[in-house]
Amino acid sequence: MAKVFPAPTTPGYHSVIDAKTCPELEYCQLGLLDLKAGQSYHGQTGPHEWALVVLEGSVRISVGDTTWDHVGQRKNVFDGKAASVYVPIDSEYTVAAVTENAKVAVAGVKAEEKHAPFLISEDDVLAQHRGKKTWQRDVYDIIGDNGDGRVHRIVIGETYGDAGAWSSYPPHKHDEVRDGETSMEEVYLFQLDPVNGFAIQLLYTEDRSIDEAHIVRQGDSFGIKKGYHPVVSAGGYRVYYLWFMGGAHGRRLMPYTEQQHRWLDA
Fold first, then answer.
1. pTM of the predicted structure, to 2 decimals
2. What domains sit in the chain, N to C, each tagged with a CATH number?
3. Closest Cα partner for 187 from 36, 50, 63, 41?
């Protein structure tokens, strides 16, 4: 089953990860929206709650009777924090390009509770520096603790790794419900700086029934149902990935670090 989903090559809306392309994932879906000035897209959320994360440019977003103008201001994902809008289940929304080019990630998690839509501005994003040595990275929580009582399942953010450095490291997983771990699917959407670079996405289980390495390039996405999933970028190329998670057992993040590598956190 495919786990790497190549970047779309044409403008408009593309459903990249959904029940058809990745039936292994029960909760998470990903769409990508590429608009030019004057263009708009009208969508429906159905049984998923969505985070519309502006990757590039600026857009106007309407959900029901509420409209936010000039959402987003980045030239690209490496140009500051994201602006986003949360859209609840069973809702209609419209995204219209304000700038000459606008790109939006449409990240969805299956949900049952319906909440009110809201804007997550750049100032609402929580920045954290994690790791050390060759596994340092910066993590930006878009909807994390600030989503308690405002969303049902979705947890979403962005991670930036230095050139040649590891991320999602030491290796961790979140595919079981037990003491110190919860079960949540996850999707990554990658960008590189410069854009002609690449990174390596690993995926493996302790029994090695899954033991894989995947090359990911600009705009590729990756679906994670189970297993440890560290990332390393190629020398000379910074890596970015939008990540989001969802599952049946709440929104509290409880990743399980592989025991033999825990000394790295000491």
1. 0.97
2. 13-265 (2.60.120.10)
3. 50
Closest listed residue to residue 192, CA positions, set 103, 105, 43, 76 = 76
pLDDT of residue 2: 64
Q: What is the CA radius of gyration of the chain?
A: 17
- Pairwise CA distance, residues 253 & 21, whole Å: 26
Distance separating alpha carbons of residues 31 and 225, to the nearest angstrom: 18
Mean residue pLDDT of the chain comes to 97
